[in-house]
Amino acid sequence: MDTPKVFESEYRFCLLLWDNEPIKSGDLAKLCAKKLDWKKSTTYTVIKRLTERGVIRSENSVVTSLVSKEEVQCAESRDFIDRTFGGSLPGFIAAFTSKQQLSPAEIAEIRRMIDSYGSNEADEGA
Amino acid sequence: METLFLKILGMSLEASAVVSAVLILRLLFRHVPKWLHCLMWALVAVKLLCPIVPESPVSLMPSQNFVEQRISESTAAPASDAPSESVPNVQADTTDMNRSEPLAPSHDIRQFGQTTESKPSWETIGSRVWLAGMSLLALYAAAAYLAMKRKLAEAVPAEVDGRKMYLCDRIDSAFVCGIVRPKIYLPCGMSEENRRQVVAHEQAHLRRCDHITKALAFGLAVVYWFNPAVWVAYILYCRDIELACDESVMRGKGTAERRAYSLALLECATQRSGFCIHNALPVGFGELAVKTRVANVLRRRTAKIWVIVLALLAVAVTGVALLTRSAAYPVVASESLDRAIAEQTFAYDRVSMSDLLGDRRYFYAAVSDFVGRSDVECYGEGHKIYGMKENKDGTLEVYAKCSAFGYGFRDGHLVINTGYSQVPTLIRFEKDDEGNYIFLSREEPKDGAAYVQSMRELFPRSIADRMLDATRDLDAACHNQEAAELSEQSKRYAEAYLQKIGREAEIGDYLDFDFKTLSDCGISDEVANELLELYGEYGMYVGNFERIENGTRYVYHLIWNDDGNNIGNGTVTFMKTRYDDGEEIEKISYQVKGNHFHLIYSNTPETTHEAIK
To answer: What would the pLDDT profile of B51-91 be if each residue is shown by its tens digit?
Structure first.
């Protein structure tokens, strides 16, 4: 059977669960609030989602895990992402950089710029 | 709402000019650190944010922008021909952001060339379109923000370089989110090195408060969405911010660091995640191509100090020139105008015209002779011109505050006995062929409850506001300073008068000197009032004053001699003497004891005043 994929945030959630199970969902929510800065609604959403995926079980508001730490595969990032607004950032957010479409030639050129930097005198001064 | 829209329209126009100036500045100062460019954009922000524009003589902006001009042209009342009537200048207050009182129902905006009420005017249509556009954009932004918040709900805290940030597996770029409690969000799966560089960049954003200014800039772009210049400014500002952060992080860093940072830029921009976001354009809205940013990081520019100083100066000069506006009613002062104002002030107060028409070399002395009140033998005036307006028909309107004072001798000083101070006055003149000012009319606002309203009717809005401001408590110092200035102006007349009559004396307001009444000296109020009633012509102050009667100068004395015990017992003497030789014309003395007084001396036969019980 395929071990279910668990994403970074869910993985951290599971870590908490493995250390504290079995645990009442209410207490789990409080724990997530403390350790992960999660709102209660967020915790319940994750519980629901992971239950559907068969990673955890929630019965009579007591949560237990169905897979162990060794068994789980932590996927780095999701295959899906909200395509709302093209996934681009709102205009008022200050970011590092956006994803840009660069041809292999452009990428190579930039790499060259970086690699050759510092080796010639022209880089110094105005 | 229409007034707000029109105000926004006007400000938008002015802002376009500022944007153009900033574009030129950025071009002129290409090679300065990027934070200077961000500073230049601040000028645009100030212009877009501030509805109140101070007046300045060095401004390059007109006193009214295009929108305001159109408004005042279409709602200005026709010029009145009757000089004595107050012109009901009901200028619809469309530039109304400064109003403190609620709009009176009668001050509705006049419709531009529309007489029927069924057709909506262009301002109404315009304001609705503006609101609609703004709401749409705001909605879009709010939705984007909410979607973002949803994505970030499951972010987990992590510590990088001792600072708390959040890892989120549903985002693909790092950014700062939140204004009050900003948090740095990082995507998962970043290499240690990249993470370091990215966090440094985001921290630079926080240090520079970009999370606030960028949101503010966006907000302004939403409000002024109809103005392409504002969007240009916004886009360029966003780019300048990124470069400024890059420079901030890279300040003082060496080759290795710069290479690492550039690599992080490249990798983060091209990171092939499963969900590679397909941008329609190679570069996103408001963003710079990676190549440009890398090139900027790899170019180690040492900015010369003098260039930076010059740039700062240029920003300051541009700010003053474009963020202020010219005076709406520039004052062209001239001596002949001042004389014309003074002349009609005296005429208004019924000074003898024959004195005015005398030798102009002794203008001040000539007009200072006053025929009228008996306690005034000399007259002075002062005025401060707040603004002037030349009308197309050649008449000149002067908006001034006028003071006028009547002086008389008291205890040997030349003292103000009567007058008025700082009265807002509208004076109309006509100019003849030789450039002399011919007086047409003079008006003052009504007193009491109708004062503010009639001020607004009489004077242009900005002038009325300035005049009213000066009398509010907020500006008491300014008001007093003005009073002192006008008082000083008035003194010239008094000085000239003293010279003319060949006397020396101190000039001043009666407050400058210490005058006592009989009650102040300890006499019972009953006695003091009774004596005042009987000898009113001697005034209420102990001491003397002078009066000219039929060409002869007389001195009226009110003398109090305490009998030494300071309990209000003593003698009161009323004496009238001739100034030139001191001859006693009249002298009456009373003995005062407690609540009684009785006559003890009199050299006039008709004294019949009796003691009261």
So the answer is: 888 888 888 888 888 888 777 666 554 443 333 333 333 33
Q: Which of B155, B280, B294 sits opposite A9 (nearest CB)?
A: B155
Binary contact (A77, B294; C-beta < 8 A): no
Q: pTM of the full predicted structure?
A: 0.68
CA B164/CA B186 separation, integer angstroms: 11
Would you state the structure tokens that stand for residue A4, as one six-digit string? 């279910």
Contact indicator for A97, B290 with CB cutoff of 8 Å: yes
Comparing A78-82, A90-94, B227-231, B442-446, which segment has the lowest mean pLDDT? A78-82
Peptide bond between residue A22 and the one before it cis (omega within 30 degrees of 0): yes
Q: Going by CATH, does the domain composed of A5-75 fall within 1.10.10.10?
A: yes
Q: Which residue of A has its CA nearest to B293?
A: A97
Q: Do A113 and B268 touch (CB under 8 A)?
A: no
Closest alpha carbon to B363 in B384, B379, B387, B386: B379
Does this complex have an ipTM over 0.95? no
How does residue B447 score in pLDDT terms, banded at 50, 70 and 90? confident
> Can you give the residue ranges of every domain in chain A?
5-75, 88-118
Q: What sections of A1-126 are H helices per DSSP?
A: 8-20, 25-36, 40-52, 104-116
How far apart are the C-alpha atoms of B497 and B508, rounded to whole Å? 14
Give, in degrees to the nearest 5, the angle at Cα B308 between B303 and B313. 170
The distance of B124 to chain A (nearest Cα, Å) reads: 30
Interchain proximity B148–A93, CB inside 8 Å = yes
